[in-house]
Structure formats: structure tokens, C-alpha cells
Amino acid sequence: MREIRSTIVAALMAAVASLAAADRAEAVVLASDDFAADGGGIGFDTNDTWGNLSNGVSDTSVASPAFRTFASPLSPFDSPTGSIFVTFDINANSPDGFAGVSFFADENDGSTETFFIGVPGGFDYGINTLGAGTIGTNIVADSQVRTLIAEVEFGAEDDTYRFWVDNFNAAAPSGELMIDGFLIESEWQAVRIASDTGGGTTIEVDNLVIATTAADVGLVTVAETVVSVDRSTGEITLSTSSGSLANVVEYSLGSFGGGLDPAGWTPIDGRLDSPDGDGTLDDDDWLAQAGAANALGEQVVSETPGDGATVTTTGVNLGAAWNRSPIEDVVASVVINDGGVLRPLLIDVVYTGDAIVSGDLDGDGDIDPQDWALFKQGQGAVNNTLSAVEAYQLGDLDGDFQHDLDDFDLFAEAFDAANGMGSLAALIAGAPEPTSAGLAIAAMGLLSGAARRRY
What we know:
Order of helices and strands: HEEEEEEEEEEEEEEEEEEEEEEEEHHHHH
Helix content: 10-25%
Largest sheet: 9 strands, antiparallel
Low-confidence stretches: 1-25, 432-455
Structural class: alpha+beta
Shape: globular
Number of strands: 24
Radius of gyration: 26 Å
Number of helices: 6
């Protein structure tokens, strides 16, 4: 985490000759700190220290919160136009409260907090304008290092907020939030790094930069890269919508619900790389990581500038690596070698084809006796040790990690909707012996067991 960004931060710090006194029309780094030493960085009061540094990061497990005052108040708000950008790397540990970086007009007066970046509350990364709106994401803070970038663009009548996670404009629906009038009008006197330690949340923050241009915070423009998931086949494809993305040295796929299928995954490693594969995608050697239902990924074995694959509109097919279900939570990222700097980029995930209908437990496009058989197997087997997808495939249709009457009602409704009213009852009652007896007994046992559990 610290090494990846160290060259960027060093270059930025060396390039800065003046801070807030510089002309706003020029690129200006107002403040930055790589947390290498307490009292270090630029743009901060050297007599005021964080007090929570550990191994080159600001670590809230050491002390929280940690305030630090600026050498002189940051005044990016005295012009009706222009922007301020804030970036930092963050590793959030199992947050169930707030965690992140915020700015204050008065360190000693909590009511003067005007802007918060990180995990505003709950589990997702986002920004909070402290009273006028938020930008949230579906990117869960899951102990992976992420680079957050926030922008406030000041307009003559409106302020516009934008937010990126690993260079991905993650906000929805439009990627920005416009607020009437000037929300931030006071100079920033201090910055705080904090987390809700009462809820067990801790964070590490590194490479903080506050600047006036996108380039100063490492925001780059790249070809729009997407991961496409084919609902009908489960195939996953990495591609660009136009143009190409060069020097890709790593990608990762994640599913918090356990929606990935390692058995159907066809990695680049040993297939499209070299020397183990045919080298058609990359003449470098790739290494596939151990697959699991919640994470798949691979990377170039030895990274040097210029290495990596080029992803185009043709795309790279990664096989039927998606476990077909109504749960669509795949997240994806790539890493590019940007002149020797490893730059992670979160990318969009799109699903194509008809959605899997709830009740289609085996994901084959219909709701039939095979799905009923899977549903029966779930009796007594569904619990919170399973992934969300595993629980669904055993009949947990309402997602509460139980197998009860509510789930039976939902399955019966879905089965009858697909096959005609009374179809499930007819299946249970009309199947030939010995299956009919087993089905009927199983159905009665399911209903009575569920009733006993619930009442």
C-alpha cells in the first residue's frame, strides 16, 4: 500500500514551491503527508502531530480520533469557480460505523465539520457533505486497500461533488451530486482521521494529498473497462467499451455472496500467457490465485514497466465463472503498470441476458422438479455459515439464512407462476411411487417443521 503510492507522493512534494499563496489557476498541492514521520508532510503545522502513526500509516487502532491543524487555513472556497481534490489510501477493517477523513473549520468545535470522505456509516465507501447530501457506493470496505478521490467543484450557483474509488467513478446514478449554493464557505483549519472504535472499526490511512487539480491526486483517464456477466451461461468477459487498456498486470473478481464458480473459471495463466500458454494475450508469465467462491484473480509474475496484457473491445473470456442466481454482487478491478507505478482501477460490472428468476435454484432458466428437489435438501441445512448464494440454492428465497414457511410460500408462488396454478401441489401429490410418498412426507415435514420453528 505505502510502496505503490510512494513515488507519486514524493514527486508531488518535490514539485511544490508554495501552497495556499499560489495562484489558484496553477496546479497546487495544498497539503500532503505520507505519514513517514509524526509532524512531517507539507502544509501542516509542524508543532502539531497526528499521534497515531504506526509503520508509516495513520492507524486508528493506535489512537482515535487524530486531529492535525494546517500550517495556515486552507481557503479553496474564496473563488466561485475551480475545484479542490482530496485523495488517500485506506484500509478499513470490518466497519460497522463511520471511518475516514473529515475537515473542520475549528478543531475544537465538532459542529464545524463540513466534509467527510471514507465510510460515512454502514459498510460502503462514500462521501458525506454533512447536511446537504451524500454519495454512496456498493463498494464494501472489506479490508482491501482502496484509493479514494473526492472532488468539490465550486460553481457560480451550485457546488458539485464527485467521488472515485480506485479511479472508478463509483457514485450512482450519475456519478456526481450537485448542491444548491455554496455548502462549504469556511476555511479548513484542521483535518481528522477517525473511526468508530466502539463498533470495532479501525482504519489505516496513507498518502493523503489535498490539491487543486485531478492530476495532482493521481486521477487518470483510461479506456472504459468493464466485466460482463452473461446470465444465461455464467460466462465472464473482461473488455473495453471502446479503445484499449494497455499494461494490465492483474485483475480480481469478488463476490461477497459467494457467487463465483472456480470450477468454471478459465484463467489467463497457462492459456493466453507465456511460456505456459500460447502467448496470444501477453508474452509475460501470469499466475492464477487459488480460486474460491468469493474471490478469483491472477497477475503477472514479474512486473516491469511496459509489461502486461492489452484489453480491447474483443475481450478476454474468463469462462463460466459466475454461479447463476438472482444475487448479482460481483465486483471487479484491474491493475495497470503505469510507467512503473502499479495503479489499481475498479471497473464496472454489467449483467447481460434475462435475470435469474427467484425460485430457479439451479439457475438453468426454469423452475421445475429439480428445483423442488434442491429446495427439499435445504430443510435443516440452511444456516448463517453458508454464503448467500449457497443458502439461496438450498431454498433461502428471502435471504435471512433460514429455511422456513416463508421460503416455502415464496417457492410455491414461483413454481405455480412458472407452471400454472396448483402445479407444486400436483407435483407433490401426483408423482409415481415411491417418489410421491417421499415428496408428500417431505412437504408435510417442511411445513410442520417450519411452523414449529416460527410459532
